Amino acid sequence: MTEPTMRAWQVYRPGPMSTRPLVRAAVPVPQPASDELLVSVRACGVCRTDLHVAEGDLPVHRPRVIPGHEVVGEVVEVGADVQAGFTVGDSVGIAWLRHTCGGCTYCQRGQENLCRESRYTGWDADGGYAEFATVPAAFALRLPSGYSDAEMAPLLCAGIIGYRALTRAQLPAGGRLGIYGFGGSAHLTAQVALAKGAEVHVMTRGERARELARALGAASVQGAADPPPVPLDAAILFAPAGELVLPALEALDRGGTLSIAGIHLSGIPTLDYQRHLFQERQVRSVTANTRADARAFLRFAAEHRLQITSPTYPLDRADEALADLSDGRIAGAAVLIV
For residues 127 and 69, is the Cβ–Cβ distance under 8 A? Predict the structure, then answer.
């Protein structure tokens, strides 16, 4: 009997989007392991990490991987050993983190994002640029109500990682936050910060992104490397541009923290200790997220209605969506509709 197939996109040969690294293919529908769920994909966010996988900024972990890790879908099959209470018909989310060992020092102290055996959707395992995807039940996320599939998808990485980046930035109550780059994750993080009472200043290129920042309530908006009008208590760098580390640090007030949210960053120029780090300014990186981060953010999203700007593309135009992201033509967070 012929096994069922599905539409999917694979990273055939990583390289610049101009070289067409994504290839559309008909591949077998995945079979869930005993501890996994099989999910019929309804929507999948288009994340900059997908772009890093496609263009080769991140090393190949799975040849011809299907990217995508902001997946909203419906459970259609439950593995025999799943005891997490999922049933066929449940709506679930599939996010970036999909496996940790559970026993190492990092896992035991609540830092499972640092687990050396961690694995990731759309990088180590096939993701959501397809009609079906699997997820270990222990890493599947229950979704808050009140959001459409297209609105929910970006919350599953852009929202979660932005939430962790904001936590890492150690913004004091009522403080001034600088945001460098204003794409999918940043436009959600700004809303979280504003809801918590922060004053938000945005530094970004592209007039569409600046217009979105103003519409969401930013106190000021200027160019990517321009100084904000006030000293910052904290800043988050979302743009994968290492040269922005210096102006971001220089914009910090005494004791301020710069949180770098990306999984990939271009080279950082030489720092000047007096200008960029003295007076107890500090830099903190962000490495993935924990399931606790995901649950905390989704609870916040349930309690505070976030405005998600999510231009949509059909699954058959996934390569176009990534190209638009690469060229800066997307304001907000793009989503594939299956």
Answer: yes
Cβ proximity of 129 and 67 under 8 Å: yes
Those residues with Cβ within 8 angstroms of residue 221's Cβ, 6 or more apart along the chain or in another chain? 201, 202, 203, 204, 210, 213, 214
Tell which CATH classification among 3.40.190.10, 1.10.10.10, 3.90.180.10, 3.50.50.60 matches the domain 5-143+308-337: 3.90.180.10
Looking at the DSSP bridge assignments, the partners of residue 22 are 11
Q: Does pLDDT of 85 surpass 90? A: no
CB 67 within 8 A of CB 127: yes
What is the distance between the alpha carbons of residues 291 and 111, in angstroms, rounded to a whole number? Answer: 10
What residue type is 10 in one-letter code? Q
pLDDT in tens, 57-80: 999 999 999 999 999 999 999 999
At the fourth CATH level, which superfamily is domain 160-285?
A: NAD(P)-binding Rossmann-like Domain (3.40.50.720)
A 10 A CB-CB count for 60 gives: 13
